[in-house]
């Protein structure tokens, strides 16, 4: 006759098997959760890419419309274009038609700027622009610029940081090409925001690898820091100096990664590889790739 309770050894095996199966199921659930998260992130990236493609196409379409409107306005101002876009007698220009084309041209221009991160609205004395900055799909900060147009175009007030060369950009473009002025200013602000974002991400997510303090100036176009790397079961220190010579770019133009003179040759090779990566990749992404390489 079978015993009413399994022997102690059986119970141990059953309990051990249950614990093992529970661990396997928990691991499978974790893998499934990670797979779902990866699928969601991939879908979001694809949607962002599709949205960006649509916006770029819309920008191109609006630019063509803007150019057509600009040409018609120029003809109207010369008194050569009548109603319906037909060339008329230069002695009979239509002031109302010229005004209508100018309004349409301004609205089309503001719409184009909006799709490129610059929005604007007409004020009683001029135009107020808002320049939004972003880096790799992440919205960062916005800066306002209030322009007066009478008796000449000039900056009334703004929230642009003092270390951005606003006066130089205005002196070069504001009176002759306001579109170019806004475009160049936007490039400066977005590049600065991108450099600052990378430095912030490095400090936030890779502080365990950074030795000491990350040094950076207000414009974030000079970064100096030390970080630890492993080579042949030993830990070594690399010193980095990143210079962003192009203020409209968020990647460095000059990279110096150095190690101690008595470091092994393999460490010097690693420093050269890291230097090349810093030139081509965002700072925090470069460090993420270092971690992946170490795990592999």
UniProtKB/TrEMBL annotation:
Instruction: Indicate the segments annotated as coiled coil, or none if absent.
Output: 28-79
**Keyword check for Zinc-finger:** no
Pfam families documented for this protein: CENP-O
Which keywords, in A-to-Z order, does the entry hold?
Centromere, Chromosome, Coiled coil, Nucleus
**Can you say where in the cell this protein is located?**
Chromosome, Centromere; Nucleus
> Which GO CC annotations does the UniProt entry carry?
Mis6-Sim4 complex; nucleus
Q: What is its main location?
A: nucleus
Keyword Coiled coil recorded: yes
Entry similarity comment = Belongs to the CENP-O/MCM21 family.
Q: What is this protein called?
A: Centromere protein O
Q: Give the originating organism.
A: Aramus guarauna
